[in-house]
Amino acid sequence: MIHSLNPTMKAITIIMPAILLSFSFDIITPAIMFIYILILTFFFSKLNIKKWLFYFIPMSFFALGLAWMTMLYTDGRYATGPIIFSFLSFDIRMGSIIVSISLALRSLCFIGLSLLFAFTTDPTKFMLSLMQQARLSPKLTYGILAGYRFVPTFRHELDMLKKAHRIRGFGHAKGWRNLVEQMKQYFIPLLAGAIRKAERVAIAMESKGFTGSKERTYYTVMKIKFTDYLFLSIMLIILIIAYYVSYRLGTLNIFGHRITP
Amino acid sequence: MKNHQPIFELDSFSFSFDKHDEPSLNNVSFSLYAEEVTLLLGASGSGKSTLTLCLNGLYPEAIDGFTSGDLLYKGRSISSYPKGVINQEIGIVFQDPESQFCMVRVEDELAFVLENLSIPRSQMKQRIEHVLDIVGLSQYKKHNIHQLSGGQKQKVALASILLMDPQYLILDEPTANLDPISSIEFIETIMRIQKERRFGLLVIEHEIDDWETYAHRLIALNKKGEILLDSTPKEGFINHLQELRSNRIRVPKRYVNREIARPPSSEKENKEVIVNLKNIQFNYKNKQILNELSFLIKKGRFCAIVGENGAGKSTLLQLIAKLNKPVSGSIDFLNIPLSDWHENELYKKIGYVFQNPEHQFINQTVYDEVCFGMKLSGYSRVETERMAHQLLTDFDLLSDKWKNPFSLSGGQKRRLSVATMLHSTPDLLLFDEPTFGQDAYTISQFMRIVMQLNEKGTTIVFVTHDMDLVDSYCNHVLVMQEGNIVYNGTPKELWRRTELLERARLRIPYRLRSMNEEMTV
């Protein structure tokens, strides 16, 4: 199960295909990867599909928008082949369509990978693993963890501020300028509160014997296991297969260079 | 008890945040001993918290402050100890339960302390379980800290300090944010542990009634950060009562002549209803917060909403002010449904003072803050100026009128936040824990202002934990428990319902407690 993998290794496993995919400008390679990511998401992780769709759908609209724009304004190098259709004053060629579909699929891969990581990783464990595996300093690790605890408090604070200002007749901002003005009004008290809280937490941590020294024992020991290497290897093997299939089909296109067998 | 070596020795010790500033602690000399329970008293701003952080070795280093004189720990200057050593021997529990943890779960927070001490992993589990057993939180080991109640959070803070096996423990207003019963429970827990482990204890607290019986000694600081008094509690409270009170220090109620409570003025009963709630239901994140509430408040009442933390008191107050919308049910204000009120009109008639007064400040100066509402209501310049002057005089803020609201003291901020609500005479004023974390003088000054408003005909509704306040000012009280109203009537009647009080985690006011004691004697 993806939940039980080591977070640092998982992060590497997610980032590597994301980088390596960005070279392929064809459809087949990202399509194969995307299918694999969906399989991982739906069959190998216990995440709430409804919640996943809640994030995935809006983000994929963004990906489609990006692809649409790419199709209209394709670089001359890619805008080859016959004209398929015309839209307003744009002539859309076969090449443009392929490049934009490829871009859309790659974006969906990134979104899928990011969500897979976010939904299957406990933030505390991720930070602890970064400290234990990636040698992140304890000062930074526990600082970030302490900050993470404040996210809900912050939201509550902002809510109270909005209400307090409404009571004073400073309610609904109309127009952009007022909105910016209003955000400024919220910013100062929020910041003042945040600084005060940060100071308190820092003092509390120090008074619990925290010095930032790297010489410490660990209660939750994060280990890299065989399955972590397995997950990474399979991910890379699938990526290689994806590239190879595309190569075999004669569609492989790296940075606009057609590579055929 | 004073025959062995003191833990701390202070000899003409002074501390200032800046070389040119007035010192926060001024020429302080005293010693603290093991096994002794000491109360440290002083008004807000008298340097109590500064002193605790100096004793813990965090100041002056953490903020580049300036010290003079000597501060010795076990006979050696505190600055000569290596980093982290003092922190482990002197534990502190702080006031704010929200901001003294860095981990999400109870277990991890406690492990964080053990990791800092480089305790081998094999011993951790057993130590964590043992300390949770001591503070009575065994079943909460795997819980998330933010889901615990305030009292439980403070016990987690205590547990993490106990893990370091400290020689001396400092409690910096540990119960200030807790409801009365949680507060007593915390005090009983810590005193039980103190008896077993025999560490020295320094307690800072505004409300000291419940600590006083355990204390061996009393140290009081005046406004300038000088020692005002160093004696046994009994001696201090009996012989130096006036001195303490003139320094704005709250003394235990049993040493004060019983002040005659204002007879609740139910005689001038007004028939008109100001707020009327019918079958109110409110949910938050699919969780039911309020359940089918119905009640009404009559005009001119002085009404308190009480109950333990998380019972839904603040939510209810916000519903009345149209800051939240109920899922179902109706709220009428002055016989018109809230939904029919235009916001501008409504907030001329309803004022709301938030728990944190800073939230309400919009302008750069105190003066602009007071004028803001008047300008919105369209008063002329001359009139605005006249009214602002009057308000600032009434609220004792005239000399601070060009200051930034954020730079005021706690009590001043609170007064200003009330003043900003009075640009037009409101019919209803709502307060969310207005006396929270303030010293005796500030509270009495504040209550005087609220009383005056009430006498002028403004209906007052406030959320509080302070039953003495309810007893001496209110003529109507609503008790909430888990989203329900379990009592709706006069305070007098409420104090007789022992079983109900216990269920809602309330405590009868001091006046009646002492009467009961006298009766049993």
From TrEMBL, chain A:
Main location (coarse class): membrane
Chain ranges passing through the membrane: 12-40, 52-74, 94-119, 226-245
Topology of this chain in the membrane: Multi-pass membrane protein
Subcellular location: Membrane
Organism: Cytobacillus stercorigallinarum
Lineage: Bacteria, Bacillati, Bacillota, Bacilli, Bacillales
Pfam families associated with the record: CbiQ
InterPro entries assigned: ABC/ECF_trnsptr_transmembrane, Cobalt_transport_CbiQ
The keyword GTP-binding is annotated on this UniProt entry: no
Protein name: CbiQ family ECF transporter T component
Keywords: Membrane, Transmembrane, Transmembrane helix
UniProtKB/TrEMBL annotation, chain B:
Locations listed in the record: Cell membrane
GO molecular function, one term: ATP binding
Presence of keyword Hydrolase: no
Domain called ABC transporter: residue spans: 8-249, 275-507
PROSITE patterns cross-referenced by the UniProt entry: ABC_TRANSPORTER_1, ABC_TRANSPORTER_2
InterPro entries on file: AAA+_ATPase, ABC_transporter-like_ATP-bd, ABC_transporter-like_CS, ABC_transpr_CbiO/EcfA_su, ECF_ABC_transporter_ATP-bd, P-loop_NTPase
Keywords: ATP-binding, Cell membrane, Membrane, Nucleotide-binding, Translocase, Transport
Its membrane topology: Peripheral membrane protein
SMART domains with a match to the protein in the record: AAA (SM00382)
One family name in Pfam for this protein: ABC_tran
Coiled-coil annotated spans: none
Family label: Belongs to the ABC transporter superfamily.
Protein name from the UniProt record: Energy-coupling factor ABC transporter ATP-binding protein
Taxonomic lineage: Bacteria, Bacillati, Bacillota, Bacilli, Bacillales
